[in-house]
Write a sequence for this structure.
């Protein structure tokens, strides 16, 4: 759930081409007006190659606007496109809403490594997220170009979640295990704190394989769907 204290949040994620790590570099807030500020990961991301956005050069400033910032609005499909109805249907929208479209589509472009994600902030609410499993190449021995071994995991398979508190890179790390108990990846780092909190609260979490595509690279070969019941 991305609403907390009456504010609606989105995280801006950047993936390093060098290390393949994902960083939460910023957060966009809707609270009557729009606010954008960099997140705590940004300095580490800069050390890994991230460049601050040209219109948001000050890492410590909270930027405010009555309208969605043009740099983010420009990532969305033009509302005047002939096929805009089909696009809205894809994201279950009856009318064009910039913020909701940003949230549901992620506004990912082929020209950069940025994407918006709907964070898990309120662990008392029902949650449903679809995401790419992280770290697959380390467990399925993928070549980096395709994931032939991903065929051993199929759509609909149940997935088990297990905290890995001694993880050297993320103390909120959550392993994803197949039905036979083998680790095949991790919950993405941008969800790990929220999912870890859900597990500690003993929430009823149902997780399955949503899609497998061994023709894609290791970062996008397996999608999972996670549902948290009230």
């Amino acid at each position: 759930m991305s609403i907390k204290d009456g504010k609606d949040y989105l995280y801006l994620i950047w993936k390093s081409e060098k290390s393949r790590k994902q960083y939460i570099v910023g957060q966009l807030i809707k609270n009557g007006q729009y606010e954008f500020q960099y997140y705590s990961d940004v300095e580490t991301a800069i050390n890994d190659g991230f460049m601050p956005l040209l219109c948001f050069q000050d890492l410590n400033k909270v930027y405010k606007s009555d309208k969605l910032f043009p740099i983010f609005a420009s990532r969305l499909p033009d509302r005047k496109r002939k096929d805009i109805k089909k696009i809205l249907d894809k994201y279950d929208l009856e009318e064009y809403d910039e913020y909701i479209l940003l949230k549901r589509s992620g506004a990912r472009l082929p020209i950069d490594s940025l994407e918006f994600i709907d964070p898990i902030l309120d662990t008392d609410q029902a949650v449903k997220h679809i995401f790419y499993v992280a770290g697959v190449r380390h467990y399925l021995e993928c070549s980096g170009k395709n994931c032939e071994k991903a065929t051993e995991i199929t759509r609909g398979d149940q997935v088990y979640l297990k905290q890995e508190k001694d993880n050297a890179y993320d103390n909120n790390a959550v392993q994803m295990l197949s039905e036979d108990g083998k680790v095949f990846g991790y919950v993405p780092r941008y969800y790990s704190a929220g999912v870890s909190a859900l597990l500690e609260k003993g929430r009823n979490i149902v997780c399955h394989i949503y899609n497998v595509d061994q023709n894609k690279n290791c970062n996008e070969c397996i999608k999972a769907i996670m549902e948290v019941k009230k």
